[in-house]
Design brief:
Belongs to the UPF0125 (RnfH) family. This is UPF0125 protein QPM17_10905. The chain is an alpha+beta fold. It has three helices and five strands, in the order ββααβββα. The chain has a single domain, classed as Roll (Ubiquitin-like (UB roll)), CATH 3.10.20.30. Strands 2-1-5-3-4 form a five-stranded mixed beta sheet, covered by helices on one side. The chain is elongated and about 55 Å long. About 20% of the residues are buried.
């Protein structure tokens, strides 16, 4: 068994759930086992982007976790970061 964490954050709330899983467990499996979808129903483990300590995982359903990993579930962007910077620059001008 290995110790991992599953994390998700919204502007109003964040949650980090610690759990033990078998070696060879994938990121998607850990998210499902953590029960975090009961706290945040908007999470879709099959579709949402995920990462380990800020590094994006290209294929979460195949990425095997290691002891101490923290799986981070990412929310979709509401606006392109470049566009957001442009909008802020226009407001200052």
């Amino acid at each position: 068994m290995i110790d991992v964490e599953v994390a998700f954050a919204r502007p109003d709330r964040q949650e980090i759930i610690s759990l033990q899983v078998e070696e060879g467990t994938t990121a998607v499996e850990a998210v499902k086992r953590s029960g975090i979808t009961a706290v945040f129903p908007e999470i879709d483990p099959e579709k949402d982007d995920m990462g380990i300590f800020g590094k994006v995982i290209k294929n979460p359903s195949a990425h095997e976790l290691r002891d101490g990993d923290r799986v981070e579930i990412y929310r979709p962007l509401k606006i392109d970061p470049k566009q957001a910077r442009l909008n802020r620059a226009k407001k200052k001008a």
